[in-house]
Specification:
There is one protein chain. By secondary structure, the chain is an all-alpha fold. It has one domain. Helices cover 72% and strands 0% of the residues. The chain is built from 3 helices and no strands. It has helices at residues 2-15, 30-54, 57-79. The radius of gyration is 16 Å and the shape is elongated.
């Protein structure tokens, strides 16, 4: 699950030594974070394509809206755990 991958990335970020511009943060990879976002977008695209074949387009779009709202709540709760870089 992508939410768990994001949580693992957050845990690595918070467990790593303090971040600095000189050294970077060895436990955190921006590439990993972007890969998770891309995977979520692909997953949403696949879901919409499957739904569009099974239900009217309006219902498929409504489902994605609800799914996006739920994901936003999860991302917000996860973001609270990430300290600001200093």
């Amino acid at each position: 699950m992508l939410a768990l991958a994001r949580l693992g990335l957050i845990a690595a970020f918070t467990a790593a030594p303090a971040w600095s511009q000189e050294t970077g943060n060895p436990g955190y990879s921006a590439d990993e974070a972007l890969d998770i976002e891309k995977d979520e977008a692909r997953q949403m695209d696949r879901t919409f394509r499957k739904l569009r074949k099974a239900v009217p387009v309006v219902k498929a779009a409504r489902y994605l809206q609800v799914e996006n709202k739920l994901r936003a709540i999860v991302r917000f709760e996860q973001a609270v755990q990430v300290p600001y870089a200093r």
